[in-house]
Specification:
The protein is α+β, with helices and mostly antiparallel strands and 563 residues long. The protein folds into four domains: 17-144, Arc Repressor Mutant, subunit A (Orthogonal Bundle), CATH 1.10.10.10; 164-295, ABC-type transport auxiliary lipoprotein component (Rossmann fold); 303-421, Serine Threonine Protein Phosphatase 5, Tetratricopeptide repeat, CATH 1.25.40.10; 433-563, Serine Threonine Protein Phosphatase 5, Tetratricopeptide repeat, CATH 1.25.40. It is 53% helix and 14% strand. It is built from 22 helices and 15 strands. The protein has helices spanning 17-35, 66-77, 85-92, 100-113, 184-198, 209-212, 222-229, 273-301, 308-320, 325-341, 346-361, 368-385, 390-401, 406-419, 424-436, 443-453, 460-473, 477-490, 495-507, 511-524, 530-535, 542-558, and strands at 2-5, 8-11, 37-43, 46-49, 54-57, 60-61, 124-127, 131-134, 139-144, 168-171, 175-176, 205-206, 233-242, 245-254, 260-269. Strands 10, 11, 12, 13, 14 and 15 form a six-stranded mixed beta sheet that branches. It has a five-stranded antiparallel beta sheet with strand order 6-5-4-3-9. It has a two-stranded antiparallel sheet with strand order 1-2. The longest helix has 29 residues, at 273-301.
C-alpha cells in the first residue's frame, strides 16, 4: 500500500499485526475517554479498578506490577473468548518479542495475585494449544471518570447506589445462638458453603467469605454493609441447637433500603451434621435463587432503558409463573429482546432454550420437533461460549430426553450436577429419562431427591407431574391422581397436569371429576388435542408406548378433544 506525500512514497507493510492492534487499542481508549467513564470488575473477593489501576481484596490493595495488571485487565475484558499468546503479547508488551518464560512468569504472578494457581486454574484457565481464558464470574460496573470509586471497604467514597451490581449479595456470618461454642464450626460451615453455592446462580456476584467474615461477631447495619461492599442484598441468619433439634433462621434484606424481603426457618431433628449442612445449604440456595431473580425482575421493570440482563430477568420471571402458552410467549419475547441487544448473551440463549424445550415437552405446540431442535441449537451455542454453564448442560440433557436420547440426556444432567450440586431439576429430568427408558418404577425416587434438595422449587409442580405419569404407566392410577393433584396445588398454570389428572380419574371411573379436570386444562390451553399428545412421542420403548395409549384412552373418556 502506498501514499503520496511531498513527492515521496510511504510504504506500509502488509499484515502488520502490531500496527493493527495498536490502532485498535488507541481507538478503544479514545472511545472510553470520549464516554468519560471507567470500568470496575468485581469477581470473587476482588475489585479490579481500571481507572485507579488498582487490584483490591476487601479493604487491601494487592500489589501488582504494571504488566500483571494489564494482563488481568485484558483477560477479564475479553473473558467471553479464549485469548492467544499473541493477543496477550500485543496487549501487554505492545507486540515486542517476549519469551514464553516471561509470559508464563507474568501469568503465574497474575494467578497468585487473585488467589489462583496453575493447578487449580479456578479463575484463569489454560486451554491447551489455544490460549487462556478468564472463567470467573464477573460483574462489570461503570463509573464516571474523576468520581471516587469504591466504598468504605474499598478505600473510597460511596458510588451511586445504582452502580451496585445485579444479584450482588453478601452472606453475613451466621450467628451461633447455642450455648456450645464448639458449634461454631458447623455455623461457619453453613455460611461458607452457602457463599459458594450462591455464586453458582447465573449472573450473581457474591462477596467472598474472607471479606464477609470480617463482620463476624459485630452488630452491623445491613444498609451500612450495602454501602461498604456495594451490594444490593444481604443475607443474615442464626443457628441454634437445643437438645436433639437444630433451628436455622434466615432473612434476606434489601441492602439499599434495609427492608426485609424474605425470611424462613428450618427446624429439624439433629442427624449427621454434614448431611444436615448440605441439605440446609441446598434448600437455601435454591429458594434464594428464585427469590433474588424475582427481586431483580421487579427492579428491571422500572428501568427506562433495559439492557440484555434486565430483559433476561423479566423473562425468567414470566417463565416461573407456569408452563402455559401465554407465559411461555411472554418469557420468550423477553429473551428474544435480550438477544437482539446482545446476541452472545449466554443467559438469554439458555433462557430461550428453556422456553422452547418447555413448550415442546409440555405439549403446548403441534410443532414439538422444531421447538426441541431450536432449544438444542441455543443450548449448544451457549455451551460454546460458556462450557461450564450448568443450566445449559441441563437444558441440553432435557432436549435429549424428550427426543428419544435418554442415555445422552442422563449424561448431560449428571454433568450439570457436577457443576452445581444444588440443581435439583437435574434429578427431576433423570427421573423422566428413566421413565422414557421403560423404567417408570425408578422415577419417583429421583423426584423425591429433587424435592429433598428444593421442596419449594418453582419447578416442583413439573416433577410431581412426572411421578403422576409414571404411576399411570405402572397402573397405579390412585397414586397418579394424588401426584397430579399435588402438581396442580403447587401451580395451577400447567395444562398437562390437569389432563393427566383427568386421564387417571377417568380410568378409575370418576368420570364427572375427570371431565372437570379436562375442562380446566382446556381453559389453559384450548388448542390441546389427543392427536398432539400422541404425535409427541417421547420414546420408542414398547412399555412406554403402551402406557401412552392408556393415557390417551383416559383423556378420551374425560372428553379431551381427539383433534
Amino acid at each position: 500500500m502506498t501514499n503520496q506525500h511531498d513527492g515521496q512514497k510511504l510504504d506500509f507493510p502488509r499484515n502488520n499485526r502490531r500496527l493493527i492492534f495498536t490502532l485498535q487499542l488507541s481507538l478503544e481508549l479514545s472511545a472510553r475517554q470520549a464516554r468519560n467513564d471507567s470500568l470496575r470488575y468485581l469477581f470473587d473477593d476482588f475489585l479490579l479498578d481500571t481507572d485507579r489501576r488498582e487490584l483490591r481484596r476487601g479493604a487491601d490493595v494487592v500489589p501488582t506490577a504494571p504488566q500483571v495488571f494489564d494482563l488481568l485487565d485484558y483477560l477479564i475484558r475479553h473473558r467471553e473468548r479464549v485469548v492467544s499468546k499473541d493477543d496477550l503479547i500485543n496487549a501487554v508488551w505492545h507486540g515486542r518479542i517476549v519469551s514464553d518464560a516471561a509470559l508464563t512468569t507474568r501469568l503465574n504472578a497474575a494467578r497468585a495475585a487473585i488467589g489462583d494457581d496453575g493447578n487449580k486454574q479456578r479463575l484463569i484457565k489454560t486451554m491447551q494449544r489455544k490460549g487462556f481464558r478468564f472463567v470467573g464470574t464477573v460483574q462489570e460496573v461503570k463509573t464516571s471518570t474523576g468520581q471516587a470509586v469504591g466504598s468504605a471497604a474499598h478505600g473510597g467514597d460511596m458510588p451511586p447506589k445504582s452502580s451496585s451490581p445485579r444479584l450482588s449479595i453478601v452472606v453475613l456470618p451466621f450467628a451461633n445462638l447455642s450455648s456450645d461454642p464448639e458449634q461454631d464450626y458447623f455455623v461457619d460451615g453453613v455460611t461458607e458453603s452457602l457463599t459458594t453455592d450462591l455464586s453458582r446462580i447465573s449472573g450473581s456476584f457474591v462477596i467472598g467469605r474472607h471479606t464477609a467474615f470480617a463482620y463476624k461477631g459485630k452488630a452491623v447495619d445491613p444498609k451500612q454493609i450495602g454501602q461498604e461492599l456495594n451490594v444490593r442484598y444481604a443475607l443474615e441468619g442464626s443457628v441454634q441447637r437445643g437438645g436433639n433439634r437444630l433451628r436455622v433462621n434466615v432473612q434476606l434484606i434489601d441492602a439499599g433500603s434495609g427492608n426485609h424481603l424474605w425470611a424462613d426457618r428450618f427446624d429439624k431433628p439433629v442427624a449427621d451434621l454434614f448431611d444436615m449442612q448440605d441439605e440446609i445449604v441446598s434448600r437455601l440456595a435454591n429458594t434464594l435463587s428464585a427469590k433474588l431473580t424475582e427481586e431483580e425482575a421487579r427492579r428491571s421493570e422500572r428501568s427506562l432503558h433495559p439492557d440484555a440482563m434486565d430483559l433476561y430477568f423479566q423473562g425468567r420471571f414470566w417463565f416461573s409463573k407456569g408452563l402455559n402458552p401465554e407465559h411461555m410467549a411472554r418469557a420468550g419475547g423477553f429473551f428474544q429482546r435480550a438477544l437482539a441487544i446482545d446476541h452472545r448473551s449466554v443467559e438469554a440463549l439458555v433462557g430461550m432454550a428453556v422456553v422452547d424445550l418447555a413448550t415442546g415437552s409440555a405439549f403446548l405446540t403441534d410443532d414439538r420437533g422444531a421447538r426441541c431442535s431450536a432449544a438444542e441449537t441455543n443450548a449448544i451455542k451457549a455451551l460454546s461460549l460458556a462450557p461450564d454453564h450448568a443450566l445449559a448442560h441441563l437444558v441440553l440433557g432435557g432436549v435429549y430426553i424428550w427426543t428419544n436420547r435418554a442415555v445422552q440426556g442422563i449424561v448431560e444432567c449428571e454433568q450439570a450436577l457436577a457443576l452445581n450440586r444444588n440443581l435439583a431439576a437435574a434429578h427431576g429430568f433423570i427421573g423422566m429419562a428413566k421413565f422414557s427408558m421403560g423404567r417408570a418404577v425408578e422415577t419417583e425416587g429421583h423426584i423425591l431427591e429433587a424435592l429433598r434438595l428444593s421442596p419449594r422449587d418453582i419447578s416442583a409442580y413439573v416433577w410431581m407431574h412426572f411421578v403422576g405419569v409414571a404411576k399411570m404407566h405402572l397402573g397405579a392410577d390412585a397414586e397418579a391422581v394424588s401426584w397430579e393433584r399435588r402438581s396442580i396445588e403447587a401451580n395451577r398454570n400447567f395444562p398437562i397436569a390437569h389432563f393427566g389428572l383427568a386421564s387417571a380419574l377417568a380410568l378409575l371411573g370418576a368420570l364427572d371429576e375427570a371431565r372437570t379436570a379436562a375442562k380446566a386444562g382446556l381453559a389453559l390451553d384450548p388448542d390441546f388435542t389427543i392427536h398432539r399428545f400422541r404425535n409427541s412421542r417421547l420414546s420408542d420403548n414398547p412399555t412406554v408406548l403402551a402406557g401412552q395409549d392408556r393415557f390417551c384412552e383416559g383423556m378420551r373418556m374425560a372428553g379431551v378433544p381427539e383433534g
